[in-house]
């Protein structure tokens, strides 16, 4: 292999993740990878030592030691430039590497052999080298000027003589640590010169090996100016300390505003000391259950970097609510940028409400009369404290009602309130007077069961709680079924603080909910599962930002002519670690975490853009169907959002279809009727998915403006060449046609299924038998081939 001349330069391309895309012979000569080997190798593999692609990309490259061909390393300069596609979207990087020319050995040797004594006088502060005996063996002129000692005097001086008596113990300990532990140390001292002049210094040092010996090499920096500024700050601080109102100064740090200073009045009002407050966002005192509008005004003002004055409730350290008259003023630096906020607060509780009324409001839930979150934490903290003192057990039971949202949607919020009140009374009747029943939020209840003699006893209590909720709740002539998922955590086994216990009980409740309800006790395995869910939730949050989601489109074929009649948009996630993931792997977590709305909006945008592309290519009359969840279409802005997209992409009526499972529509008939009518008015077709999977209400389906039904996958999969398993599919096809609806058979995978569905009048077919889901470019090629073949 030929050698590379110094100053040689090579250029190649990488993808967004720093993986090699192109590789030319010059690159192969320099680094030893052949053009066949290089693609998909990470650029960071060429870097000697640790290297992060994210850091390299953010810095645009840098000066690095690279692994060259032949196993040796060399200095080089890496330059990274962002590349863009024809639409201006970021697409990969251009990497350029310039090999540094080797220096003349003679010149390098001359610089390397320069005596240290000729350099130290150029340093801005004091420089010194000390041996183990504590004597100076090397120093610069600045040290002589600072101490006002001659070279002979410094040579004879002991380093400990340079420190004031009160500082010598710390100085001796630091010197010991340098020589015995190899530590790097620093400390602030006051140098007192021969004439008595005092100079504040920051001094430090570290161990350096020299020709078989070890010495402490160090420097000192004059910090007199810093001390002057500190004195000025102390004067300002004393003025703030004297104020009777609470004062908080925060620093702007992105989405948070971290506290840098609080005065004694604040400590008295809030109950938090300065050390407990500094470094935290003031929202740690927030009472989010109250005064949502006022808090929104603060958020908006802070985001807009302007002053605001509000009155709302905050929480003291002891959990007590207090009315806070808060004025916030932005502070700008010399460039006009807001760097800090000053908050002035007054405790106006006595002026707002009588003390007894405020106490009850703070500690009890207004709807159920149960303890609220504030009182719960107080009771739980007290219970944990007593349990630790008396060596007893405390159980925390977190209860989440099953399908409570369905109760609200089906019977109304008044019925939901009645259910919550009845549940609260039943729980209170099932426990002892010494226990606490609290409503945490929504349909979540937390119980604190004190003095638990054994786990068996706790299990019996939890079962009694579960059975108390089984009986339906009567409301307006209806019997509303009620069930619950219970998670149990025990102190001290599962946690020693209130937060740990509630968190463990929540994990156990989540496990119970995943298994259909019942009682579950916490186990360490649940913590691991919870952490994995949290990691998946965070990853989903970044998936849209990092363009990791994409759509595939599966064609629907005319059962008789074989022509393409439309497409179904299918979501996929190109996970950076797990590869391409199907929706079943992550959509349930997206639903649970509330991220489904953003994902659904993105899918609708992409689907409309795809239809628009097809129309531009001349392929009209090919609608695209999109699956939407209950959480999506129950949003107030769902229909206006679809109408806006139809207008934005210039799509005529019939271009977009919305697929909703039959069970979801029956879940809330009123919403289903309204939705179908609004979609029809917007020019969007409604398609019933998973038809026949569960209980069907044919009279309800007649009330909907529906275009077609799609047979449930199980009904299609049950079709065999011979046997009774095919009767369900035949019956569903007949029902669909009797309702004057088109019938689509999806998930078609075998010839027997194709023949059966065609022979029994199924209108359209979709599945792997005809085509796997295709990328947009593959759809264009397929349509182009079919178009020219006709």
UniProtKB/TrEMBL annotation:
Residue ranges of every copy of the GGDEF domain listed in the record: 392-524
Ranges for domain PAS: 1-37, 112-182, 232-305
GO function terms (MF aspect): catalytic activity
Signal peptide: none
InterPro entries membership: Biofilm_reg_signaling, EAL_dom, EAL_sf, GGDEF_dom, Nucleotide_cyclase, PAC, PAS, PAS-assoc_C
Domain annotation PAC: ranges: 306-360
GO biological process: regulation of DNA-templated transcription
EAL domain residues: 533-787
Name of the protein in question: PAS domain S-box-containing protein/diguanylate cyclase (GGDEF) domain-containing protein
């Amino acid at each position: 292999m030929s050698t590379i001349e110094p100053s040689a330069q090579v250029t190649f391309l990488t993808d967004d993740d720093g993986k090699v895309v192109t590789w030319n012979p010059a690159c192969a000569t320099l680094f030893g990878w052949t053009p066949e080997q290089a693609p998909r190798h990470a650029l960071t593999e060429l870097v000697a030592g640790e290297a992060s692609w994210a850091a390299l990309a953010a810095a645009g490259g840098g000066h690095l030691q690279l692994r060259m061909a032949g196993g040796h390393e060399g200095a080089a300069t890496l330059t990274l430039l962002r590349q863009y596609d024809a639409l201006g979207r970021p697409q990969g990087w251009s990497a350029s590497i310039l090999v540094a020319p080797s220096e003349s050995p003679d010149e390098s040797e001359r610089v390397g052999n320069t005596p240290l004594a000729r350099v130290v006088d150029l340093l801005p502060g004091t420089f010194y080298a000390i041996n183990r005996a504590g004597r100076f063996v090397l120093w610069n002129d600045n040290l002589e000027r600072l101490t006002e000692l001659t070279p002979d005097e410094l040579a004879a001086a002991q380093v400990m003589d340079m420190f004031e008596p009160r500082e010598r113990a710390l100085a001796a300990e630091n010197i010991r640590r340098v020589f015995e532990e190899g530590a790097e140390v620093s400390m602030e001292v006051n140098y007192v010169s021969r004439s008595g002049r005092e100079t504040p210094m920051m001094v430090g040092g570290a161990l350096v090996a020299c020709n078989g010996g070890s010495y402490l090499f160090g420097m000192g920096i004059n910090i007199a100016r810093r001390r002057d500024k500190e004195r000025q700050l102390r004067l300002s601080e004393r003025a703030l300390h004297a104020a009777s109102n609470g004062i908080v100064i925060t620093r702007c740090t992105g989405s948070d505003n971290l506290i840098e200073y609080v005065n004694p009045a604040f400590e008295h009002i809030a109950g938090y000391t300065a050390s407990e407050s500094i470094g935290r966002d003031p929202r740690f005192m927030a009472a989010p259950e109250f005064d949502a509008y006022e808090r929104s005004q603060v958020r908006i003002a802070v985001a807009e970097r302007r002053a605001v004055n509000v009155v709302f409730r905050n929480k003291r350290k002891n959990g007590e609510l207090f009315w806070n008259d808060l004025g916030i003023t932005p502070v700008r630096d010399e460039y006009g940028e807001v760097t800090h906020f000053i908050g002035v607060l007054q405790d106006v509780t006595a002026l707002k409400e009588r003390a007894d009324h405020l106490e009850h409001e703070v500690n009890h839930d207004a709807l159920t009369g149960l303890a609220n979150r504030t009182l719960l934490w107080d009771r739980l903290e007290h219970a944990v404290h007593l349990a630790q003192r008396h060596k007893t057990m405390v159980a925390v039971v977190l209860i989440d009602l099953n399908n409570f949202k369905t109760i609200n949607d089906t019977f109304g919020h008044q019925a939901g309130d009645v259910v919550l009140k009845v549940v609260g009374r039943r729980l209170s009747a099932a426990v002892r007077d010494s226990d606490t029943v609290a409503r945490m939020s929504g349909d979540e209840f937390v119980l604190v069961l004190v003095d638990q003699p054994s786990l068996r006893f706790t299990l019996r209590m939890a079962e009694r709680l579960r059975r108390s909720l089984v009986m339906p709740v009567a409301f307006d002539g209806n019997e509303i079924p009620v069930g619950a998922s219970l998670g149990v955590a025990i102190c001290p086994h599962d946690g020693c603080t209130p937060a740990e216990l509630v968190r463990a009980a929540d994990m156990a409740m989540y496990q119970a909910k995943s298994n259909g309800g019942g009682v579950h006790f916490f186990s360490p395995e649940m913590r691991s599962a919870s952490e994995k869910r949290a990691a998946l939730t965070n990853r989903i949050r970044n998936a849209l930002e990092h363009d990791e989601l994409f759509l595939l489109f599966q064609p629907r074929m005319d059962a008789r002519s074989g022509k393409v009649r439309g497409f179904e948009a299918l979501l996929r996630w190109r996970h950076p670690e797990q590869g391409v993931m199907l929706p079943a792997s992550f959509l349930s977590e997206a639903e649970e975490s509330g991220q489904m709305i953003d994902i659904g909006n993105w899918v609708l945008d992409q689907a409309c853009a795809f239809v628009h592309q097809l129309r531009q290519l001349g392929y009209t009359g090919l609608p695209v169907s999109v699956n939407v969840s209950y959480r999506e279409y129950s949003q107030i802005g769902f229909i206006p959002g679809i109408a806006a997209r139809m207008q934005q992409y210039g799509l005529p009526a019939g271009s977009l279809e919305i697929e909703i499972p039959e069970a979801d529509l029956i879940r809330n008939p009123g919403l289903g009727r309204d939705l179908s009518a609004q979609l029809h008015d917007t020019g969007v077709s409604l398609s019933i998915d998973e038809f026949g999977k569960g209980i069907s209400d044919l009279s309800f389906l007649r009330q909907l403006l529906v275009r077609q039904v799609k047979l449930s996958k199980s009904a299609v999969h049950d079709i065999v060449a011979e046997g009774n398993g095919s009767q369900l599919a035949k019956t569903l096809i007949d029902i669909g046609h009797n309702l004057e609806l088109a019938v689509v058979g999806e998930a078609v995978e075998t010839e027997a299924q194709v023949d059966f569905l065609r022979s029994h009048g199924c209108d359209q077919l979709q599945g792997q038998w005809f085509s796997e889901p295709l990328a947009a470019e593959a759809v264009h090629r397929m349509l182009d081939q079919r178009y020219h073949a006709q």
